[in-house]
Structures are given as structure tokens and as C-alpha cells.
Write a structure and sequence with these properties.
The complex is a heterodimer of chains A (428) and B (52). Chain A is mainly beta. Chain A folds into two domains: 6-213, no CATH class; 266-388, Jelly Rolls (Sandwich), CATH 2.60.120.380. Helix content of chain A is 15%, strand content 46%. In chain A, the strands form four sheets. In chain A, strands 7-8-9-10-15-14-13-12 form an eight-stranded antiparallel beta barrel. A five-stranded antiparallel sheet of chain A has the order 17-23-19-20-21, with no helix packed on it. The longest helix of chain A is centred in the last third of the chain and has 28 residues, at 392-419. Chain A is elongated. Chain B has 52 residues and is mainly alpha-helical. Chain B has helices spanning 2-24, 44-49; one strand at residues 34-35. The longest helix of chain B is centred in the N-terminal third of the chain and has 23 residues, at 2-24. Classes of the chains: A mainly beta (428), B mainly alpha (52). At the A-B interface, helix 3, strand 20, strand 22 and helix 4 of A face helix 1, strand 1 and helix 2 of B.
Chain lengths: 428, 52
């Protein structure tokens, strides 16, 4: 669809021009010779013709379409270029006009079309200079309307092509300095040319709806993959995946909670006792529970020394059904005024035992001193507890569920990194 | 809703199974215990061997 038009003849080249835009239009740039005509002075020549190369864009002057539910007409086209690190970046801005909503911009860059409008509300702080950016330790941030925007890029830009009507006077030789900052789904641009500072907000409209509304041609321009990444396209996790992530987090909490409670449901079969060691010690006990582990704690009064236990487990017929060895060692001292210690005086062994009567025969097989001031062990302690939980299943379940949650978070992190890949910020 | 219900049931089952296995003591035996009958380490065998 195209707008109803008035016509003039270019006083420079004589070409017929369609007049678009509202009452605040300042200039009309001839599509054929590039002469800038003064819209407030009967379209007399304001600036001489300039040779310009037409950029690739799906838009043409006079096209009409809806953006965020409002009808706009394309009235001006201005192509820009920026040179940075030996590379040249280009994009095309289209000034659009609505009788009810005034002037705004549609920008075509890398196959995407974004919508930009000016705002009179300054951010806090209101300016961000190149020097401030260069000397900042971290990405600069500023606040606007209660939202935080983070630095994305900056640079000096210059037009390479101008055509149509504008509500200001664009010159092919003018340059301006811009700073782009991002929040989740919007970009705030601080633009300064000469002594003027302007603030612009950019959003990403629904591409398919916009293309259909403006009836953009199917060929002759590069259209971005709608599923692709764009800096103004926030990472959105599907609702079911989000639900899965949240349930996984709950599962991790549940497993860790049970893990922390595993010591709370035990039964003491033999309370702690300590005896002076003069020979093997027999400790009878009865396992009553059909579930859980039986935990045997052995202790020796090692002091800068070590001790080795040999332990036999007898059933009610005095048959040896199992045996195991344990060793404890404990060292401590003071070095440079600081107390230190290492090792342990206790050893824990866990077994699965069916209900029944058992006897534990504990032998202090050997004890030795291998540190100055040490004393060999001469007393042992023991304790038997039943109904002990195993932490193995809970540990693996926590690791599995936690790993999946981390995978979700990593996916979000990498999506953010991909989104910010076009930023010129360097932490160096 | 059905995928959510499946997710909820599967994960609740996994958490419940983990808790139940832990409560039973499965996998928590010390590896230094040797069976006097077979010489194999671990004590899972004791139950299998049938303690009277």
C-alpha cells in the first residue's frame, strides 16, 4: 500500500518527486540528484546535489504499513556506515510518519527490521562519553524508566545515502557519535551530533507481521531467519522446559534435604564405650531392623601416633562371617604459633546385616609412634548404630538432577553470550 | 498439561526411589569388609549368604 501523495518538480534536476510526511518535515532530498530542498521555503535548494549509491533495502518511499498496531508511511531513507577495526558496517534507516504518532524509524540491518522512536526522558546518567567508556572497568550501565541498560556498542557514523523527507536536515558529510545500551528486549541509544543529545529506544517488531503489512517484496533483499539470534530477541525457554527446570530444582532440593536427614533415623545398638586395651574386646549386639545399614565406629587414643584394628564379625553360632581392618592416625602440633592437626582418631564401617545376634571382636593389632612426642594407643572406643541410610542413591540423584539444572543455566548463559556477540566491549 | 504431568510423575518417582534405596541402605556398604566365607570384599554377600 502507498500513501496519497502531492508532487513537486525538483528545482535542481527537474525530476518529479512525491511529497510525504507531516507538518514538521524540514527537508525533501531528491531521489534522483540528491539535492536537499527546504520544505519550509517552497522546496528551494538548501544543499546541492550529491552523488550517492543506493543501498539495499526492501522499503521504498511511500510504503504504508502497521508497526505495533499503528499505521506509518515511509517518508525518508538514509543509509549509514561505520568503520571499526578495519571493517565497515552498514545499515539503512527509514524515517516513517504517522499523523497520530509522529515520526519514528525502521532500520534494516543484517536482514532484521527494528523500530526506533525518540524519547524525551533522559536516562540516568544522561550522557556517556567515549572517554568514559574507554576508561570504565566494567560495562557501563544507566537507568531509564526504572530499567537498567548495559553498554553494547558505540561509534561514529556517517550517512552514505539520503532520499526523501525528514523532520531534520541530514547532510551527507555530517557525523554523529552514538552509544547503544541494552536491557532485556530494548536498546537505548544516546546519539550526539554537534551540540545536540538525543535518546532513542529500539525494539524488534514481529518480522512476519511487519513484512506482510508493508507488503515488502519477496526477493531482492536478505531476510533474516526468524528463528535466528538477534540482540533484541531475549532468550525464552519453552514453558514445558521451564517447568522441567523448576521441577528439577525442586528434585535437587528434595534429594539434598533427605541427604541431610539421613543421620536422623538411626537406632543405637551399642552405646559408645571406651576401654583400656589389654586384649581382643568382644561386643555383642542385636540387629532388629530389616532395612538400613549397621555402622560400627572404632576409636583409638592415638596421639601423634597410629593404630591398626583387626575386626571379626561372628554370628550367633560363633561363626566368623566377615572381617575387616581399619587404621587410625592423628597428628597435631604448633608451628609458628599456629595450632595444626591432621588425621582422625575414629573409623567408621558400614555393613548390611540381616536381623539377628552378632558379636564384634575388636583387636588392636598394632600401634606405632612416628612423630616426635607421640604416644602409642592403649585404649579403644566403639559404638554400633543400626538403621543408617546410604547416601549413594541420593548423591547420584542430586548430581543427575543438579547437572540437568546446570545444563539449563548454561544454555541460557551461552544464549546470552551469542546475543551479545556483536558488542564491541572488551574486558581487557 | 500431559507433558507436565509426565515430568512431575517421572521426577517424583525418581526422587522417591532414591530416597527409598537410601532408606534401605543400598550401596552404602564399606568396601574394606571381606567375607569370611567367600573372600569377596563388600558385605552385600552377607545377606545373600544368609546370616542365621
Amino acid at each position: 500500500m502507498t500513501a496519497a501523495q502531492k508532487h513537486i518538480s525538483c528545482p535542481s534536476c527537474g525530476a518529479g518527486l512525491d511529497i510525504l510526511g507531516g507538518g514538521r518535515t524540514r527537508v525533501q532530498v531528491c531521489s534522483y540528484c540528491g539535492a536537499t530542498l527546504d520544505a519550509n521555503d517552497d522546496y528551494t535548494i538548501m544543499l546541492d546535489a550529491a552523488a550517492m549509491q543506493r543501498p539495499e533495502t526492501p522499503f521504498q518511499l511511500g510504503m504504508v504499513g502497521d508497526v505495533f498496531g499503528q499505521s506509518f508511511t515511509v517518508i525518508g531513507i538514509i543509509a549509514w556506515f561505520e568503520e571499526h577495526d578495519g571493517r565497515t558496517y552498514t545499515w539503512v534507516d527509514h524515517q516513517i510518519y504517522s499523523p497520530t504518532h509522529g515520526y519514528a524509524w525502521l532500520t534494516y540491518e543484517d536482514g532484521w527490521i527494528t523500530f526506533t522512536r525518540k524519547t524525551r526522558v533522559p536516562p540516568n546518567p544522561a550522557t556517556l562519553t567515549g572517554v568514559q567508556i574507554e576508561t570504565s572497568e566494567n560495562r557501563p550501565k544507566l537507568r531509564w524508566e526504572g530499567r537498567t541498560f548495559t553498554y553494547y556498542s558505540s561509534g561514529r557514523i556517517q550517512p552514505s545515502f539520503i532520499e526523501g523527507a525528514f523532520n531534520y536536515v541530514p547532510r551527507i558529510t555530517d557525523t554523529s557519535f552514538y552509544v547503544d545500551l541494552l536491557c532485556e528486549d530494548r536498546m537505548l541509544t544516546l546519539s550526539s551530533a554537534a551540540d545536540e543529545q538525543e535518546y532513542e529506544l529500539t525494539e524488534l517488531p514481529d518480522q512476519a507481521a511487519l513484512i506482510e503489512s508493508f507488503q515488502l517484496p519477496a526477493d531482492g533483499w536478505h531476510r533474516a531467519d526468524p528463528e535466528g539470534t538477534h540482540v533484541l530477541k531475549p532468550y525464552k525457554i519453552p514453558k514445558t522446559a521451564s517447568f522441567l527446570r523448576n521441577v528439577l530444582m525442586l528434585a535437587v532440593v528434595a534429594c539434598l534435604g533427605m541427604w541431610m536427614m539421613t543421620g536422623a533415623f538411626t537406632t543405637t545398638l551399642v552405646p559408645y564405650d571406651e576401654v583400656r586395651y589389654s586384649g581382643p574386646v568382644s561386643v555383642p549386639f542385636t540387629v532388629t531392623e530389616t532395612r538400613g545399614l549397621t555402622e560400627i565406629m572404632l576409636r583409638a587414643n592415638v596421639d601423634n601416633s597410629w593404630a591398626a584394628f583387626e575386626t571379626e564379625l561372628l554370628n550367633e553360632d560363633d561363626e566368623t562371617i566377615a572381617e575387616y581392618a581399619e587404621q587410625v592416625a592423628h597428628y597435631s602440633g604448633t608451628e609458628n604459633g599456629e595450632y595444626w592437626s591432621e588425621g582422625r582418631t575414629t573409623a567408621f564401617t558400614r555393613l548390611i546385616l540381616a536381623p539377628g545376634d552378632y558379636t564384634l571382636v575388636i583387636s588392636l593389632d598394632e600401634t606405632g609412634v612416628d612423630w616426635p612426642g607421640g604416644e602409642p594407643a592403649n585404649a579403644i572406643g566403639y559404638k554400633v548404630v543400626g538403621g543408617v541410610w546410604s547416601t549413594v542413591a541420593l548423591k547420584w540423584a542430586s548430581l543427575l538432577f543438579g547437572g540437568l539444572v546446570i545444563a539449563f543455566l548454561a544454555r541460557r548463559y551461552f544464549a546470552h553470550q551469542t546475543r551479545m556477540a556483536g558488542s564491541d566491549w572488551s574486558d581487557d | 498439561m500431559i507433558p507436565r504431568l509426565i515430568i512431575l510423575v517421572v521426577l517424583a518417582g525418581a526422587v522417591g526411589t532414591s530416597g527409598y534405596l537410601s532408606w534401605l541402605g543400598v550401596g552404602g556398604e564399606s568396601s574394606n569388609v571381606v567375607s569370611a566365607r567367600t573372600g569377596s570384599s563388600g558385605v552385600g554377600y552377607i545377606r545373600a549368604g544368609g546370616v542365621k
